[in-house]
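FAQ

Q: What does a record look like?
A: Structure on top, sequence underneath. For example:
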């Protein structure tokens, strides 16, 4: 496995671990404002909150997987086949959760601050999936 893609993936995983909880906090603030304005909190709004929470956990787990246990060191020693499959599996899970959030974001259309925060997170998980798909 090439070092540059792994290092980029590691950086992105760190960014996702930080930015996903910020997205959740921004979304929860939007929900609170919606509630205070006496606008209906829909089932989709609640589902989106749950999906973002799951994405936060998945992003944290992905980051911990890449950082913990010396994965990058093992890969550098070319014991890569099994490790690549694990990285790809974790990246697919991150992408699956991200796509669920993306679908509901499109449907619920939360405020611009939520959409802006989401675009940053979305761009990063999509790039992780792209890198993982190219690993050999």
């Amino acid at each position: 496995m090439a070092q540059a893609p792994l290092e980029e993936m590691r950086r992105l995983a760190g960014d996702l671990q930080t930015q996903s909880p910020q997205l959740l906090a921004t979304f929860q603030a939007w929900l609170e404002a919606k509630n205070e304005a006496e606008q209906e909190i829909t089932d989709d709004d609640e589902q989106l909150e749950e999906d973002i929470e799951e994405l936060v956990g998945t992003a944290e787990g992905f980051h911990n997987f890449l950082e913990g246990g010396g994965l990058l060191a093992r890969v550098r020693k070319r014991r890569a086949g099994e490790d690549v499959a694990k990285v790809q599996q974790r990246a697919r899970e991150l992408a699956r959760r991200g796509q669920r959030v993306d679908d509901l974001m499109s449907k619920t259309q939360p405020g611009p601050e939520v959409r802006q925060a989401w675009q940053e997170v979305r761009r990063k998980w999509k790039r992780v999936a792209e890198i993982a798909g190219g690993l050999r």
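Q: Is there anything notable about this one?
A: Helices lie at 3-36, 43-67, 71-76, 80-108, 112-134.
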